[in-house]
Amino acid sequence: MSQRIGFVGAGQMTTALAGGFLRSGILKVSDLFAFDVSEEAKQKFVAATGGAVLETLKELAGTVDVLFLAVKPQHLGSVLTELGPILSDRKKRLLVVSIAAGITIATLAEGLGKKTPIIRVMPNTPCLIGSGASGYCPSEQVSENEIGLIQSLLETVGLAVRVSEEQLNAITGLSGSGPAFGYMIVEALSDGGVQMGLTRGVATQLAAQTLKGAAEMVLQTGEHPAVLKDRVASPGGTTIAGIAALEQAGLRSALIAAVVAATERSVELSRPVSPKAD
What is the b/e burial string over 64-102, where b = at least 16 CB atoms within 10 angstroms of the residue's CB? Predict the structure, then answer.
């Protein structure tokens, strides 16, 4: 791939995505660039990826073919304010990819220009180890080749699915926030193991590996989780006793409520934000 890729924001998600692109061989380190106002973030980016850090947003936008906006939603307004005039003066096409949660394509286009090709992506932190789950949605200005490029890039760090923009808030609530919910489940299972006499290290390893294995069973077999669950739960056995306890404690409804709450927060973030806001 001869495309030059740049990141506005050199934080953890940038490092995760860039690392995946490089490990796969789809991107050369000489084609990787970033800009950040934080010296610490820039140093960590260079140390982790070997990519180049440019001194200004204008320089970055003038260098790359694909520009990832990897800043927090509350900081995106000032980036759009500065980037908009830069793109209006640019003659060469620039694909802009935003991973800012909740910020709509319409809001991005308002700041960057209506003709700018824009793709919204909702990745998650397991991208750092190549086990991410990302949803993305392109604007009408994005070509099929550009969609294929982003699909290929995202697949270097895990699963990538194309969805409608309306579904991105739900993806934020499910796979975007979901790792935190998963960590809580691992911690709770480990606590149960410790209470029953296992050491903390052993309990945590077993809990994490058990959830990993269960997830892989769903992905590799394609079977419904309920079918796989029933295969473990023999009549009158230990598993069905545990399932009954989980149902009584409301685990299922609690997890549904967590996804709903996270999705609703994403909707709140997607409400109109002026491109000139800090």
Answer: bbbbbbbbebeebbebbebbbebbeeeeeebbbbbbbbb
